[in-house]
Write a structure and sequence with these properties.
- By secondary structure, the protein is α/β, with parallel strands linked by helices.
- The chain has 14 helices and eleven strands.
- The radius of gyration is 32 Å and the shape is elongated.
- It starts with a helix and ends in a 28-residue tail after the last helix.
Length: 394
């Protein structure tokens, strides 16, 4: 009997202890993701990882804190589609005051089950642009605008938003404040901070197609899902101007190595920069023909130095460089711009450095050797012992 009582006591003790452990280590009911800056492919990877993490932890709500000027149209669609099909409710919160959900960011925000905004924030200005700026071809612009309008109208229908205002985001680049967004049935909530948002969102009903569903939170605990270091690095590299700089200076370093064989460091550094640039171009869906034309241009310009072509190789290099830069980027993006002036500046700097390197190489070839038999030519010497006329010569 005593043995049985002891067993029951032990079982009760471990049951209580196990219960406390479960309570202590239970996951939060809200998973928070932060997006600040341009919408690029690495941001999609971050969102996808966050949604998978939320699914594994069985959270009640995914909170995306957003502040973006826009980004790539393709990436925006991928993120919006992920949010639209998410089984866990997603709340996009444009925060803090002064933040914006502009261009591609506005469409991502509209895709959420709940759209909240802090006072002093804005949303809209989603007219599509190319990476170089406005679309010059009016027929092409009309096709792109109409396609985008249909896409956001579909999102508005799913989420119960004001389709007319959403279309004006695209057609007229309309941008509105948080309170205007609430009045026009774009934003669901206008709240000062995350604590207030969590309090108000518990029990809130949201539209999902024709159905109204309710957000129910187990608790108000928020867990941050930090952006992994690899994605931070990828996001940094996926800036078009930076990727272009990596390519130009990588080729320049390889040229320096070819001019001075055996140094190795310039060649390795150049290869590393070129690989980084290719990775950045890949993330930005750059045109491979444009990349190859830029590489061809550099090869032709270097060949002009060594081969007598009466300027034909140099002219071909300049033409290839101009065509390569024009064809390099084809993606759409408001926030991700490739500056032509930036491109010209980089090219001029690269040409200047190339001329400088070539000058020092030519100069070095005419310098007198510092060692070996060649270094003795033209030097004066003194005889320290009597010379035998039959041996040696001076």
């Amino acid at each position: 009997m005593k043995w049985l009582l002891k067993k029951l006591k032990n079982s009760l003790f471990y049951t209580i202890l196990f219960s406390f452990l479960i309570i202590g280590y239970s996951s939060a009911s809200i998973l928070r993701l932060d997006i600040k800056g341009a919408i690029t492919p690495p941001i999609y990877d971050y969102i996808e990882m966050g949604l998978n993490e939320a699914s594994q932890k069985e959270v009640d709500l995914i909170l995306i804190v957003l502040d973006t000027p826009g980004g790539l149209e393709k990436t925006m669609r991928e993120i919006s589609n992920k949010i639209l099909i998410s089984k866990i409710p997603v709340c996009v919160y444009v925060y803090p005051s002064g933040a914006r959900a502009a261009s591609a960011g506005a469409i991502i925000a509209l895709s959420a089950h709940v759209l909240a905004m802090a006072p002093g924030t804005s949303i809209g200005a989603s007219h599509p642009l190319t990476i170089f700026g406005e679309i010059k071809d009016k027929t092409l612009e009309s096709k792109i605008v109409n396609d985008m309008k249909a896409y956001v109208r579909g999102i508005a229908e799913v989420r119960g938003k004001n389709a007319g205002v959403v279309e004006e985001f695209i057609e007229k680049s309309l941008s509105i404040t948080a309170f205007e967004a609430k009045e026009k049935s774009i934003a669901d909530l206008v709240v000062d901070n995350i604590d207030s948002l969590v309090s108000l969102i518990d029990g809130l009903e949201y539209k999902n197609l024709e159905k109204s569903q309710k957000i129910v939170l187990r608790d108000k605990k928020v867990e941050n899902f930090e952006m992994p270091l690899t994605i931070r690095i990828s996001n940094f590299i996926s800036q078009p101007n930076l990727a272009y700089v990596f390519l130009v200076f990588g080729l320049l370093l390889i040229f320096f190595e070819l001019s001075n064989p055996g140094l190795y460091v310039p060649a390795l550094s150049g290869i590393f920069l070129i690989l980084l640039s290719f990775y950045g171009f890949h993330l930005l869906s750059a045109n491979l023909t444009g990349i190859f034309l830029i590489i061809l241009a550099m090869i032709l310009l270097i060949a002009e130095i060594y081969i007598t072509s009466f300027g034909l190789l140099g002219l071909g290099g300049i033409i290839a460089l101009i065509l390569g830069n024009i064809m390099l980027y084809k993606s759409l993006g408001e926030a991700i711009r490739f500056s032509p002036m930036y491109m010209i500046t980089v090219i001029l700097i690269a040409v200047f450095i190339s001329i400088l390197i070539f000058y020092f190489i030519i100069k070095a070839q005419f310098l007198k050797p510092l060692e070996g038999m060649e270094a003795l030519i033209g030097e004066e010497g003194s005889c320290v012992r009597k010379k035998d006329s039959n041996i040696g010569k001076v």
